[in-house]
Amino acid sequence: MMEKFSQKITHAMNVTPQQAWEVISKVEGVDQWFASLIKTCRIADGKRFCETHDGSKLDEDIIEVNAETKTFVYGIPSQEMLPVENIVGTMKVKSISDQKTEVEWSATFDADKENAPVAQEAFRNLWTMGLKDMETFINSKNQ
């Protein structure tokens, strides 16, 4: 039986809050800043369509892009990578200082009890990898 679970990470980056928000709020270009996982990314009709290097498809609903709170919310009703459904993810940019930013990446999702820990671990690993990739991407662009 499916139940609701959640996962959250926070990751500090040596980039400005504005630099991190520009990358996240653009919505497209995930294949540029998360190139280790995402092969292609395009936007159409309020949705983001990404494909991973191994061919998994992620069709995402763009729920909210809020510049005031620097929050991006997306939904992934179904996907093939993990044994979960109804993912609602949130990326929130927080200022630590002028040159340091913390990004909080969280999600709620439906999963069977035995699959939830596996999914939580996968999210933690993927998001950490993605945010490290984003920091590298931003810093390489600004040299």
Write the layout of secondary structure elements.
Blueprint: E1 2-13, H1 17-25, H2 30-33, E2 38-44, E3 47-52, E4 57-66, E5 71-76, E6 84-97, E7 100-112, H3 116-141
Antiparallel strand pairs: 1-7, 2-3, 3-4, 4-5, 5-6, 6-7
Explain the overall architecture.
The chain is α+β, with helices and mostly antiparallel strands. The chain has a single domain (2-141), classed as Alpha-D-Glucose-1,6-Bisphosphate, Chain A, domain 4 (2-Layer Sandwich). It is 27% helix and 48% strand. It has helices at 17-25, 30-33, 116-141; strands at residues 2-13, 38-44, 47-52, 57-66, 71-76, 84-97, 100-112. Strand 6 and strand 7 (100-112) form a beta hairpin. The longest helix has 26 residues, at 116-141. The protein is globular. The relative contact order is 0.26.
Short description:
Pfam families: Polyketide_cyc2. By secondary structure, this protein is of the alpha+beta class.
CATH architecture: 2-Layer Sandwich
Task: Summarize the biggest pleated sheet.
Answer: 7 strands, antiparallel
Low-pLDDT parts are none
Main CATH class? Alpha Beta
Q: What helical percentage do the residues reach? A: 25-40%
Through-space gap between termini: 51 Å
Structural class by helix and strand composition: alpha+beta
Mean pLDDT level: 96
Number of strands: 7
Order of helices and strands: EHHEEEEEEH
Radius of gyration over C-alpha positions, nearest whole angstrom: 15 Å
Please identify which CATH superfamily we are dealing with.
Answer: START domain
Number of helices in the DSSP assignment: 3
Strand order of the largest sheet: 1-7-6-5-4-3-2
CATH topology-level fold name: Alpha-D-Glucose-1,6-Bisphosphate, Chain A, domain 4
